[in-house]
Amino acid sequence: MDWGNVTAEDLIDALREVEWSSPPRPLSEFFSRFTLPRSYRTNYFIMLLTILGLAFLRKPLAIVAALMTALSVAFLNDSFAGTFNEKVTRSVRKVSPHLAAKMRPPLTPVIRGRPSDKRAIYICGRPRWVFVLAFSAASFLIWFLSCGLLTVLLAFTIGLLAMLLHASFRTPNLKARLNTFREEFRAVWRNYSEL
């Protein structure tokens, strides 16, 4: 399909044809098709996640610090910040409409009938940088107090070292051996044909 020729009307018509009311498929159907991966790269990723999981079990507060760090970085994304603001405001509106009204961003100035191009992103009625700074400071404090950063860095080092050692000492499978032999044969054949 050539997406360059698709118009907005075509897209809207296609979205109207989709049945949005059907319930999602059950989790049992998803996990019935889930099998262990055969690729060594995926196995390395699973090994690294397992080692990190063990490190997080050793320092559970490091999980909170990692989540706070991820959230502070995610607030830098415009769409995430807007969606987060909308969801929090909706949740607060159910509990306290008066507080939700206070969480609205200030009105943007309109110059000659057009809104300002530099529209600031607000989260819960405050500029985005306030939330980024607050969550970054909180995550730094938790990383520092829990000494979890050293544990996570050590876990990454152990995981990467384990992957490097395994990749260095594992025996290649038959397909890899045949590919290596084929490439060597082609190189030798090219040298003979040049003579």
Keyphrases for this structure?
195 residues, mainly alpha, 9 helices, 4% strand
Describe, in plain words, how this protein is organized in 3D.
The protein is mostly helical and 195 residues long. Helix 4 packs antiparallel against helix 7. The longest helix is centred in the C-terminal third of the chain and has 22 residues, at 148-169. The chain is built from nine helices and four strands; from the N terminus they run ααααααββββααα.
Order of helices and strands: HHHHHHEEEEHHH
Task: Give the CA-based shape.
Answer: extended
Category by helix and strand content: mainly alpha
| Cα separation of the termini | 50 Å
Rounded mean pLDDT is 81
In short:
This protein is mainly alpha-helical and 195 residues long. It is built from nine helices and four strands; from the N terminus they run ααααααββββααα. Helix content is 69%, strand content 4%.
Secondary structure elements and pairings:
Layout: H1 8-17, H2 27-32, H3 40-58, H4 61-74, H5 78-95, H6 97-102, E1 110-111, E2 114-115, E3 122-123, E4 126-127, H7 128-146, H8 148-169, H9 174-194
Helix pairs in contact: 3-8, 4-7
